[in-house]
Design a protein that fits this description.
This protein is of the alpha+beta class. It has a single domain (about 5-110), classed as Phosphorylase Kinase, domain 1, CATH 3.30.200. The protein contains three helices and five strands; from the N terminus they run αβββαββα. The chain has a five-stranded antiparallel beta sheet, sandwiched between helices.
Length: about 150
């Protein structure tokens, strides 16, 4: 990525550090990076890379601007609470707003679209909304605590 392609909210130095951090975290997890980092998204709310690993499982590395600092810890919580619906978070750096996740598998979602599943989807959605309402005070505290001042 060149300086001209770098989103306004970050620097080339930060993105280079994020790549190195992601590679180091993969090695700690026993998943050595393989090949080049592939930027799949860069914009006003994130920069996302896809990275192949020697194990064959690709991962995403995501960097978000200060406004979205709560996203990595929130995604981490959601992935623990609903592991079938949210890709596992492998590592986060909350201070620097970086997150490493497994790549979402589209096939997981396909059964939701089969005929007769709407009742099940609605039930899951209702339960999720009810549970989310219970953790909302904690989430708001997290947002206030991690927001830039």
């Amino acid at each position: 990525m060149s300086l001209a392609e770098c989103p306004e909210w970050t620097t080339l130095e930060e993105l280079t550090l994020a790549e190195a951090w992601g590679d180091a975290r993969l090695r700690v997890l026993g998943r050595s990076p393989h090949g080049e980092h592939q930027i799949i998204k860069r914009g006003s709310i994130s920069v996302v890379w896809r990275q192949q690993t020697e194990t064959g499982q690709d991962v995403f590395l995501k960097v978000v601007p200060p406004l979205f600092a709560p996203e990595p810890p929130l995604t981490e919580w959601l992935s623990r609470r609903w592991p079938a619906n949210v890709p596992p978070v492998l590592a986060t750096d909350r201070h620097r707003r970086w997150m490493l996740t497994r790549v979402a598998v589209a096939q997981r979602l396909s059964p939701l679209y089969h005929a007769g599943s709407y009742r099940r989807i609605f039930g899951i959605g209702t339960a999720a909304v009810a549970e989310f309402a219970q953790v909302l005070p904690w989430l708001l505290g997290l947002l206030i605590e991690t927001s830039p001042r």
